[in-house]
Amino acid sequence: MATTTSKFIHANGGVGETSYANNSSHQNKLISKVKPMLEQSLRSLYSSSLPSCLKVADLGCSSGPNALKLVSDIIDIVDSISCNLDNHDKKPLGFQFFLNDQFQNDFNNIFQSLPHFYERIKEEKGERLDSCFVNATPGSFYGRLFPNNSIHFFNSSTSLHWLSQAPKGLAKGTGLVNKGNIYITSTSPPEVYQAYLDQFRHDFGAFLRSRAKELVQGGGMFLLFLGRDQSSEIVTPYGILGSALNDMVSEGLIEEEKLDSINMPRYGATPDEVKQVIESEGSFTLQKLEAINTPWDEGLNKNNDNDDTNMSADFIAKYVRATCEPLMKAEFGEGIIGELFVRYRKKLVVKLEQEKLEYTNLVMFMTKK
Question: What does the mean pLDDT of the chain come to?
Answer without folding.
Answer: 89
